[in-house]
Amino acid sequence: MSVPGAHLVEHGVVGKDHVFETPTKAVKTMEDMVTWEKSEAYNEYLGFILALNEAVQGKAANSKYPASQTLLNTVAMLNIFDQWLTEIPPTDQPQRFGNKSFRDWHGRLLERSEDELKKVLPKDLHRAIPELSPYLCEGFGNATRIDYGTGHEMAFIMFLCCLFKIGAYQSDDKVAAVNKVFSRYMEFIRRLQLVYRMEPAGSHGVWSLDDYQFVPFVWGSAQL
Q1: Which residues contact 156 (CB under 8 A, 6 or more apart)?
Q2: pTM exceeding the 0.85 threshold for the entire prediction
Q3: Residue 211 DSSP SS3
Q4: Which of 52, 133, 199, 202 could bond 147 through an S-S bridge, CB–CB 3.0 to 4.6 Å?
């Protein structure tokens, strides 16, 4: 049985005449959700998660696996984001949740994301940055509400999916995408939540596995 969307990981190439577009929000109502769940994009997203889930079965985080230079560049970018967190310490304020310094950190992310992506991607793929950057920036929480949730996690997964789809990541990068990139993302995002005391976005309490994350439970169970 084939995995829907799994071809994204196997054949991620775009032609030179492909026009990249800045993503815009399309799901705004419950009716839009029905359309989304029947869309090609939904199948690609789900298929991507399932394809990487299959790739990491029985693969411990410290196991040996190939990793392309672009993938290693992505980890280096996350390290830089982590460094900004040290450079922008939390503000001394009485609120239990939502430290305002997160807005400064997020503002720097918006300001520098395209330049950082230029360091990650080979030059011939720099034209994809306007489409990639919004997914990346959305993957670290909301600066207005100072919260983070599974929707932000989903944006980062879509960012990784796009990297495979445009050929920035290779098929052999599937395990490393989980065990190196997503693992580093999780490590950093936990620190981001703790330092800036971010609220969980759209928490469903006992109806969800966790207030902040979902995908680690899928890929983590596959590793085990």
Answers
A1: 135, 136, 138, 139, 140, 182, 185
A2: yes
A3: coil
A4: 199
